[in-house]
Amino acid sequence: MKRYFICGLISMMLILVMSGCQKKATPESLLQQVKKNVEGSTGIDVSMSMELRAEADEADEASYDEDLTMRYDVKASHEPEIFYIDEQLTGHVGGETLEDTHIYLYGLLEEPEGTIWYGDGEDWSVKTGSEKEITSVTDLIDLPGKLASGDDMELTIQKEEENQEFYVLSGTVTGAMLERMANAVDSVGEIFGGAMFVGTGLYDFKVPITIRIDRETKQFASITLDMTEAINTWEEESDFSYVGIRFDFHAFQLEEPLAVPDEVKENAFDEETYVEEDPSEDSEPVELTPGEDELTQTEDRTMGLKETTVDAPAEMNEWASTYTLLTDGTYHEVSVQVTGVIRGEEAAEQAKAYFEKGPQTMFDYELPEALEYGFVTYEVYIPADFPEDTYLGMEMYLTAPDGEYLNNDAYSFTDQFWIEQTDPDALAVGPGQTAKGVGLFTIEKDRTEYMIQIGDSWYHEAYIRIQ
């Protein structure tokens, strides 16, 4: 099941004066030094935790005490692309203490397939799929460098803590920086069946942030975000006393290479190929297959609903069938068409203007020499029998003519296949209306044949040929 990768945020400006030193340093110079120190890292050891606290209101019988902490201890490396996660859930709800549970997970991404092993330490299951089906957490390796990119953020310096010496920067953030951190958390959450901050629109809020930098190594020690006010404002019924996200960075190089233990590989239970014996003596074994997404076909034929495949895509300006995710986890059919593609100098100028507005973005502003920015314009018709008041958008990707995502090890994960919506609010239309969207992407300058894939349900997307 696909998940939106969208949580928003905006930029920051740093102000820092090194106390206790004869030489003064600006926040910009300090963060650039941090960025330099983590560049080239091939691995990372980091803990990510999300803490929620709520206190019961005596006047409200429906309220209850809540103290939950979800923690991910993650080790990840490139070459090979492999990760290990220990997920832990602790706390109490309504006076009941939750047992300290652990879920362990290994992931190995090798072309053309990716594999995930998960279990409780004794019993293991395995899942194999194409690389595009297996969410990677190795983007965490690049996170510290992106956080030190010099985004605008107002900061102050605090006193050093205990016997260890840290630069402590504090301020508020919105936009790109918080989005990068939220996406890092979501990439882990997706592996366990659902993203944490998808579609929340938290980029509209200012969030307090504290960054601790080891004074000796000039590397990130921790990053803490206080999400309390943002969550309570965004979700009117929420009344949390504290909601926080924290990253604790332990190392930026792994002492030993990561590997999936042999005992895990040998004992993992493959649910997709499991054959269950039928209790009837005369019946043949029944092969269990992965569950299909729950799809609802529309009865509204106002626009075309051409069924497309990789081998039989739609052309530009031709309406095609695809499915969008609803809030209840099911999928509803809509019509979509691509109306235009802009590339070259015109796209470069539009991209520059887009970035100058300071929106949240998944892209690095400076592209590798071989890439260029492009824009795709498209329309989505929301049928009259659409069951929700507002359409929330769909995922869009670039693929090669054979349907494989455009990809190259020389570029970051967003380059070559991710299409970013430049104005998500423009898509918020209701049943019987047509949304007009614009997507930003990057592509190799010399590539002339490719397709655009639109839709949220695996194996039911629309493919549109671009030539």
Question: Would you give an account of this structure?
Answer:
- With 467 residues, the protein is mainly β.
- The strands form four sheets. Strands 1, 2, 3, 4, 5, 6, 7, 8, 9, 10, 11, 12 and 13 form a 13-stranded mixed beta sheet that branches.
- It is globular and about 70 Å long.
- Residues 1-23, 274-281 and 285-291 have low confidence and may be disordered.
- It contains six helices and 24 strands.
What secondary-structure arrangement, pairings included, does this model have?
Blueprint: H1 27-38, E1 43-54, E2 66-77, E3 81-93, E4 96-97, E5 101-110, E6 113-119, E7 124-130, H2 143-147, E8 155-157, E9 166-173, H3 176-191, E10 207-214, E11 220-226, H4 228-234, E12 242-251, H5 262-267, E13 269-270, E14 275-276, E15 286-287, E16 295-296, E17 320-325, E18 331-342, H6 344-356, E19 371-381, E20 396-399, E21 420-421, E22 434-444, E23 450-454, E24 462-466
Parallel strand pairs: 7-13, 16-18
Antiparallel strand pairs: 1-2, 1-12, 2-3, 3-4, 3-5, 5-6, 6-7, 8-9, 9-10, 10-11, 11-12, 14-15, 17-18, 18-19, 19-22, 20-23, 21-22, 23-24
Q: Give the C-alpha Rg.
A: 24 Å
Structural class: mainly beta
End-to-end Cα distance: 29 Å
Low-confidence stretches: 1-23, 274-281, 285-291
SSE order in H/E notation? HEEEEEEEHEEHEEHEHEEEEEEHEEEEEE
Residue fraction in strands? 25-35%
* Global geometry: globular
Helical content stands at 10-25%
Kindly state the mean pLDDT as a whole number? 76
Number of helices: 6
How would a textbook summarize the main sheet?
A: 13 strands, mixed
User: Number of DSSP strands?
Assistant: 24
